[in-house]
């Protein structure tokens, strides 16, 4: 079995998904879960793209020990220097440099000749190698590049010190045969290719990203790049859980293995979905809600007689568990603490106390608190670590009936301590609540998206709401959980506004420190 390295770019290419914006604490939580999942490399962000990304990459580089942390950079000295400042703390600092090589990108986007692109790539790989022991170089839009030019530039950047060569299918255009053949050609043509690792990076515009990645592996690639749940630009990236599980389940056909702990897959997927608000479709392979459900009578009958009639893998293999009963009304602090640490979540004593109080409040309304419920509460507490004053909900009330106009009344405490209260009407309860919040909050607000889901099943399931707001022109996501759908909706709205306030204050603090 040859070993395939997994390069996760959920925090960089995944975070480029429309509408996704994660704060530093959330990125750190994702990074810790990726480390637990066992990815070999993680792309923590694009340090030169913003102060927020820089800080997140730095925090991840300082925290993660068992996975090599990398950051994206354009081929210019300023990007490389900034990336070094963020990544120098990592156990094995790694940089990912990219430059487009296709005629269309060189002509229209870069406005450079192939000779200029070649010279730039070589000199910047050499410059990066003075600082970073590991330098990955990507030929952006490789699958639409001229192969002879590609072979020449690869040979030159290897001579300049590159350690990994990545050939992305940036626009998700290639087919498995074509993509595999490109790697075969490069391996046969580039004389120094044995000095580096070859990597693939596929986008999913034609739904071929996983198939293309596997075709690349069959043609000598030893690193696969992708994201959890396949999130990313446009139609997303190759879904890493699909690649890894396909290699495991079809080990009879594919002589390759990854180092992933597959039973951490579902938890990794759930975390990304919760924090990004990008929930996976029910029929998504491996991690979708229906991936292991059998609906048709003939299938159910077959599975009862022998699981393998309709199951090619077990749910346990990827960490899908029956939603186990966790703790109830009479569970004490110790049992609670033990379960939190079994879920792999670190909380300070104060946060643990807060979580226990939330859990107790929940058991007043919900008889069976499951791992899913607990995980949802804990994620909310764990990723909210800012001490900045925010809007606080004091109370809300809604009058709704089929024959009257829905009216909401809300009281808030403003960040400066003032008490605020007003009432507004709307077409429905949620609209009345959101119009009332809009009237109370001084920032300029526009609601762009609203989602409501249930955590688990059953009539007492927790409600989880996600909203996307523009706050003073900035796109912010918010999420809220509660037993009641209206309370979850209010919490999500306030969460988005409060994230904006925290972000604004953090930027101010960073400017003062500078
Ligand atoms: O898709 C792509 O080409 C990329 C590069 C930055 C590697 O994401
Ligand atoms: Zn990409």
From TrEMBL:
<keyword id="KW-0963">Cytoplasm</keyword>
<feature type="domain" description="Pyruvate carboxyltransferase">
    <location>
        <begin position="4"/>
        <end position="266"/>
    </location>
</feature>
<feature type="binding site">
    <location>
        <position position="203"/>
    </location>
    <ligand>
        <name>Mn(2+)</name>
    </ligand>
</feature>
<protein>
    <recommendedName>
        <fullName>2-isopropylmalate synthase</fullName>
        <ecNumber>2.3.3.13</ecNumber>
    </recommendedName>
</protein>
<dbReference type="Pfam" id="PF08502">
    <property type="entry name" value="LeuA_dimer"/>
</dbReference>
<feature type="binding site">
    <location>
        <position position="237"/>
    </location>
    <ligand>
        <name>Mn(2+)</name>
    </ligand>
</feature>
<dbReference type="InterPro" id="IPR054691">
    <property type="entry name" value="LeuA/HCS_post-cat"/>
</dbReference>
<dbReference type="Pfam" id="PF00682">
    <property type="entry name" value="HMGL-like"/>
</dbReference>
<keyword id="KW-0012">Acyltransferase</keyword>
<keyword id="KW-0100">Branched-chain amino acid biosynthesis</keyword>
<dbReference type="GO" id="GO:0003852">
    <property type="term" value="F:2-isopropylmalate synthase activity"/>
</dbReference>
<keyword id="KW-0028">Amino-acid biosynthesis</keyword>
<keyword id="KW-0464">Manganese</keyword>
<keyword id="KW-0808">Transferase</keyword>
<feature type="region of interest" description="Regulatory domain">
    <location>
        <begin position="392"/>
        <end position="514"/>
    </location>
</feature>
<dbReference type="InterPro" id="IPR050073">
    <property type="entry name" value="2-IPM_HCS-like"/>
</dbReference>
<dbReference type="InterPro" id="IPR013785">
    <property type="entry name" value="Aldolase_TIM"/>
</dbReference>
<comment type="pathway">
    <text>Amino-acid biosynthesis; L-leucine biosynthesis; L-leucine from 3-methyl-2-oxobutanoate: step 1/4.</text>
</comment>
<feature type="binding site">
    <location>
        <position position="13"/>
    </location>
    <ligand>
        <name>Mn(2+)</name>
    </ligand>
</feature>
<dbReference type="InterPro" id="IPR013709">
    <property type="entry name" value="2-isopropylmalate_synth_dimer"/>
</dbReference>
<dbReference type="InterPro" id="IPR000891">
    <property type="entry name" value="PYR_CT"/>
</dbReference>
<keyword id="KW-0432">Leucine biosynthesis</keyword>
<keyword id="KW-0479">Metal-binding</keyword>
<comment type="function">
    <text>Catalyzes the condensation of the acetyl group of acetyl-CoA with 3-methyl-2-oxobutanoate (2-ketoisovalerate) to form 3-carboxy-3-hydroxy-4-methylpentanoate (2-isopropylmalate).</text>
</comment>
<comment type="similarity">
    <text>Belongs to the alpha-IPM synthase/homocitrate synthase family. LeuA type 1 subfamily.</text>
</comment>
<dbReference type="InterPro" id="IPR002034">
    <property type="entry name" value="AIPM/Hcit_synth_CS"/>
</dbReference>
<dbReference type="InterPro" id="IPR005671">
    <property type="entry name" value="LeuA_bact_synth"/>
</dbReference>
<dbReference type="InterPro" id="IPR036230">
    <property type="entry name" value="LeuA_allosteric_dom_sf"/>
</dbReference>
<comment type="subunit">
    <text>Homodimer.</text>
</comment>
<dbReference type="Pfam" id="PF22617">
    <property type="entry name" value="HCS_D2"/>
</dbReference>
<feature type="binding site">
    <location>
        <position position="201"/>
    </location>
    <ligand>
        <name>Mn(2+)</name>
    </ligand>
</feature>
